[in-house]
Amino acid sequence: MTELFFPKTYSSLTSAQLIAKEKANMDTVRFEHCVRVSRTARKLAEQNQFDPDKAALAGFVHDYAKQMPEEAFRTAIVQEKMSSELLKWNRSIWHGTVGWFFVQRDLKINDAEILTAIRRHTTGDVEMTTLDKIVFLADYIEPGRDFEGVEQARQIGYADLNAGVGYELAHTLAFLIKKRAKVYPKTLAAYNVWAAQSSSSVKKEGKQ
What we know:
Blueprint: H1 15-24, H2 28-47, H3 52-61, H4 70-79, H5 91-97, H6 99-106, H7 112-120, H8 130-141, H9 150-159, H10 161-178, H11 185-204
Helix pairs in contact: 2-3, 2-8, 3-7, 6-7, 7-8, 8-10, 9-10, 10-11
């Protein structure tokens, strides 16, 4: 695996310090996922006229809080006066919607664009910046993913970032509905915006 290096960390920590801190906060499988997301985010950024170094960093830190104890999330929600509605959810949602706080606290990253991309990567949103979309999609299509439909997601996402976001939301929603699982309200709202906007592009690709 090529050595990681981030020329700008948007933090008081050096690249090496930030990488070491993240590595200590998760197991090897999760860390390797973060590395793959970082590289996928870089590729998407290069194709979408966005700073590849910043995208790579955001992709790397997106799951920093994924394996933190659930009680840590509950404590942060209460102490930081976040929406009490978040307490009704779990770590699959929290590691984005609350996880940005731990990235800011522990990794000393204060860049609003990066923190917002982390916050939105588990749910999507009705408004998404280019970086939001890059991290959201990179997490879904990184090379370690092998679910049914991932090759279609890659083809669509690399061709059209918005269409890739729409594809991801449509298939995520279908997966949750099939399980009769609760759907986070922002995810449903995001589906109504991004899946609808990208449906014509997806149909042209013959994927849906």
